[in-house]
Amino acid sequence: MEFLKQIERKWQKKWKEARIFEISPNPNKPKYFVTVAYPYPNSPQHIGHGRTYTMADAHARYMRMQGYNVLLPMAFHYTGTPVFAMSERLAANDEELIDTFVRIYKVPERLLKNFHDPLNMARYFHEEIKAGMKEMGYSIDWRREFTTIDPQYNRFIEWQFETLRQKGYISQGSHPVGWCPNEGNPVGQHDTQDDVEPEIGEFTLIKFQYGEWILPAATLRPETIFGVTNMWLNPTVEYVKARVDNEQWIVSKESVEKLGYLNRKVEVVETLMGSQLVGKHVKNPVTNQEILILPAEFVDPKNATGVVMSVPGHAPYDYVALKNLSQEKAQLKGFGLTPEIIANIKPISMITVSGYGDFPAGDVVKKMGIVSQLDPKLEDATKEVYRHEFHTGKMKANTGKYAGLVVPEAKDKVKDDLIEENKAQNMYELLNKPVFCRCGTECVVKIFEDQWFIDYGNAEWKKLAHEWLDKMRIFPEELRAEFNYVIDWLHEKACARKSGLGTRLPWDPEWIIESLSDSVIYMAYYTITHSLKEHSIRPDQLTDAVFNHILLGVGNTNELAEETGLEPSILEKMREEFSYFYPLDSRHSGRDLVSNHLTFMIFNHLAIFPEELWPRQIVVNGSVLMEGQKMSKSYGNIIPLREAIERFGADPLRLTVLATAELLQDADFSPTLAKSMRERLERLYRFAVETIKLKAGETVEPPVLTTIDRWMLSQLQNHIRRATEAMDNLAVRKAIHGTLYELEQDFQWYQRRISKEREGVERKAAISKVFGEVLDAQVRMLTPATPHICEEIWEKMGKASFISLAEWPTRDEKKVDTQAEETENLIKNVLEDTFNILRATKMVPKKICYYSAAPWKWKVYLTALEKSTSAKITLNDLMKELMKNSDLKKMAEKLAKFARQIVEEINRMPEDKKQRQLQIGAVDENQTLEEAETFFGKEFNAKVNAYNENDPKRHDPKRKSELARPYRPAIYIE
Ligand SMILES: [Zn+2]
To answer: Would the pLDDT of 700 be above 80?
Structure first.
């Protein structure tokens, strides 16, 4: 362990001294620009963060080895509530948080007071995170580091917003937003506990008449108003009679405050229990039908108005609740109702949908075996019915003027008409509640008035985003649909708030641009940060015209130089550097940023830059579990990254997060796994040292390679091809597995095959050549994952430069040897067959004989193979063909017997195997087996002889040799 740590420190120091990751434009090399979402410095990074950054680093390192001039920069996101709210909670002496900081994050207690200033906290964790990234060996160009509160960056963001505004993408108006009532701020995903995006849905409140009062039933499916049979209220919760604007409503007590946030004037008149209304009648405003109010436990007073209309034909909840209620004789009696009354309430069928009867709700409930209205499966049932009706449903004749419409169309029309006739209103509500703000308060929806929004609802903009997404590479590909969904779903987003760190809106400076809006095009800023520092460029020199020039190519260098006092050469250099590195080639992040940041990034690039500068690729990875569990403060299973590096080493840690899961799967971390990875790397190192010693004794040049040597080198080419394909597709786990485990298995086989042969000088030279080639390729292919130990081995191999800058191995077609591969399969088969016989007979062998097939059998075999490539062969056809040969004709009986044996085998053989065997032709099995006599002898501890079945001198007392078939030598044991 100490040894690994020393290696890591040594190479981190050498990389830094040689400045190999400080990347500048190089006109002779193609560029590749990789970025990862910058971190919020509000806590130390843990292993979960480590995965995303390690993935990006591995990709950057791979592309570098593929010959690209790869830039991987890093910055720190001080903006907004993530940092600010954390600091406020500390200032408010939040004990849980203090405990987390001291016990898990190991922050010295005396510093906590300083953290009441968010800036101090951000600076502390900034350094902490940066140190961890260095200790992980990330190939970052640290010259380009910045924070989002640097005054120069503020100017960049001001330019971004001015540009968006001039192009019409900023709007001012009233829109629903997720809202923290405590702080009076809009909340997005990065402002909530557990990073939940508040999802806002639009309910329709349909106004059922109850005398002079209105019961506003909340529904997401207004078109089902024609199927309403009754009303549901929760008898055990409090409702209020209230004046809402100019009307008199009865709604749940919980909804009063929410209606206020939605800008309705609400004045409570009196409170009553739901039970007081049960048994009364209300009038359906569309059908004018009088319906009963019935009791239901599933009605959540916190959901919209707490008033629900019942559509048992099409809503599974309603169907089950009615069924349940008809059994509750005693309860019904209390309301003056009877089971018969309930039984008389019949579902109304008002939508036809293929694959279901008249009442889809009942169908699905029966299929899923749901009997209780509190069964969580009802959610799935509801979704299933809704999905089918939405996609294939049509309105029936009993829906009046909507008859024949498809459901999505009817939904909008009914809603619009009802609102128009004042029979309904809308109500925004969180669909995924409860969502809690970082300050601990439950979030609500607020109509945010006269505020600033980025207009992601703009239809033209959405269309463009879809079109560009089609052209982008998305890894994993299955996320493309999710991006399309998010693009459709996005609407106006509040882009500023009144508290926190960040950049002020240039035209309305009481507002600070929030953190998901000032982080969408900053990749461009990386291309110039080091120049800004190097030339001490002041923020006031970075006018909008300067950014227009550098980033959009607008304006005249000399004029700008004169206006700003900047050297023309510096302006030109920044313009050139931006033009060299942009567009962004690969953007990496965790999955949680798909629904916001990553999609915003696409939108904003499209708005601001010309098409040739739009981002090319997005890579999204899953998270990390800790021994099968979600990592969370409450489980106490968070290991900060630096602590993990200290315990397990950087390379083992990198390997663990990369090699245990494909991109989108969750990786499962455990200390045991990390330790086994460390041992695996230590074994690799010992093998390397041994190989290097071996190579030092090499004398014969060029060495003569035997079949097994050629086999190993051929397999190596296959592994190189597979690892390259995997890395090209960001399947890093697959690449590591191939390189570390599958290649290793082959290599162990090779060592097993040659171990007795090391004595001769010639063999020694050949073997050391094979060892050397395997090691060389293996170490290169592992470098993206475990760069430190690979550098150390590389140095031991006597290489002058860094392996980080070496080339990725390429498959050498000349070394691909199909024949060697097939004959080696033969050896493996013979070995396995012999072991099987020994196991079955419990013999202890003294002597083993192998008989390879006679040449005529090969002729039959290959003829059959050839005929079978176009279609299945029959024995008759094959015989007809073979009998044309006069030599074969003479031995018709033997021939028929043998042909019968192989027809079936060949018909079953996969096409590619047939092609390979045909390409190789007849194999000299006798020579192959003879070469392996020593190997077999050692494996079985017996004397082993190989013969051809035609060999008159063969030892064959049981006439076993007759059984020999191509690729299946006969075996005799005594
Ligand atoms: Zn809050």
So the answer is: no
Distance, CA of 555 to CA of 693 (rounded, Å): 63
Residue in the structure block whose two tokens are 């120049």? 531
Q: How far is the CA of 101 from the centre of ligand 1 (A)?
A: 20
- Say how many Å lie between the CA of residue 49 and the centre of ligand 1: 25
Per-state percent for the chain, helix, strand, coil, to nearest 5? 50, 15, 30
Report the pLDDT averaged over residues 812-817: 95
In 3D space, the residue among 444, 500, 496 whose CA is nearest the CA of residue 181 turns out to be: 444
Per-residue tokens: 741: 């485990």
Residue 216 CA, distance from chain mean position: 42
Residue 15 reports pLDDT greater than 80: yes
Q: How far is the CA of 443 from the centre of ligand 1 (A)?
A: 8
In this predicted structure, what is the pLDDT of residue 760? 78
Rounded to the nearest angstrom, the distance between the alpha carbon of 293 and the centre of ligand 1 is 38
Please provide residue 163's backbone torsions phi and psi, each rounded to the nearest 5 degrees: -65, -45
Percent over 90 (pLDDT), the chain: 77
Task: Enumerate residues 6+ apart whose C-beta is below 8 A from 3.
Answer: 682
**C-alpha Rg value of the chain to the nearest Å:** 37
864 Cβ neighbours under 8 A, 6+ residues apart: 873, 878, 899, 902, 903, 906
Find the 136 Cα to ligand 1 centroid distance in Å.
Answer: 35
Query: Residue 320: how many CB atoms within 10 A of its CB?
Result: 25
pTM above 0.85, yes or no: no
Distance 441 CA to ligand 1 centre (A): 5
Nearest to 402 by CA among 363, 352, 347, 345: 352
Q: Helix, strand, or coil here: 175?
A: strand
